[in-house]
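Exercise: predict the fold of this chain.
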Amino acid sequence: MGQSSGSAIVTASADGVITGTHNVTFNHVAVFKTKDMLPSQVSGSASGGRSIAIDSSGNIYAAGADFGSGLWIVRKSADGGATWSTVDSYRPTGNSQAKANAVSIDSTGAIYVGGSAGDLGGLTGVIRKSSDHGSTWNTVDTFVDTPLLSGDGNGVKSIVIDSSDKVYASGSNGSWIVRMSSNGGTTWTTVDSYQFSAGHHASANAITIDALGNIYAVGFGTDLSNVWQWIVRKSSNAGISWSTVDSYVLGTGYFAIPTSITTDGNGNLYTAGFEGAFSVGTFYPPSSWVVRKGSESGSTWITIVSSPTRESGTMANGIATDSGGNIYVVGLSGNNWTVKKGTHSGSVWTNLDSFHGPWGPTSVAAAFGNVYATGMAQQWITRILYP
């Protein structure tokens, strides 16, 4: 908790969608309050939000999953987070598992939600759309997913929409993949397919667009030793061609995985994720938060947050900025739900929220003077930081 200029909303589980924000000045101590809780339909199982977005009217949409029932879930609040309802509950067949990972909203108010669905027979990347504020939904894109890494959740991981309402969805079908629709989701084209090492898994975990229209996708590529490498790729021509503008790892024997990316009003880029020492047979070894900053349209990158202390259950999952230049990062720190705020281009950081998870927030967005984050702590949780 602490004093700040603005209010903040945070929801709990795992990915990031950013909209604009307005500053509100206040002199009170900010206090987090839980505003939405959605337990799994199956006793003893978990549920959680994985992405959050706010439309121009202030409607809040959070996308995630009920892991017990296998249902893809979209939740909506039309009153600033005071009350919530489920507006989409989806899986393609009765015995499949579906998970919504990303949500974004175009200039007409159309909502796009992306994720994955499937069973032991295989996975499918899925994008669903609502043109009536969540009342009805249609599946507008699917693609076959061929996992190359056991245990990885593939499909669509992130969605961003440009000023002309072109929709870009990033994720994985075994390879890193970016898909694009220029006609409201009627047809889709793969505009980037990439592997760091041929035949080894890669995933575009998040995607954003800067004020100049440059598109940036961030994720990981697996090298020949099956070690994850932090990758940022850029397109300056609406996805026609792509190049790698950042490839980062601390050193030999270390892995690095970015989970999220955003821009600020000054043209800076910020990516968040985690890194640690690679350990054969350990899916996520002890790790630490990492935040990297890009400038000059992604030509130059520096690490602004890193720690030599590594713990199990530690990873940065989502990042956002507001119009005042503040940076918000959400994730886990030693299995504690954590929200941090960075000021002065990330040189000064404070903790805004922390409690025992065991999972935590996974996505954060800033809009209307509020900060919204979504994630899970055994069940789907939304927390609001009031001024």
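Check your answer against the key: Residues 87 and 155 are 21 Å apart (CA to CA).
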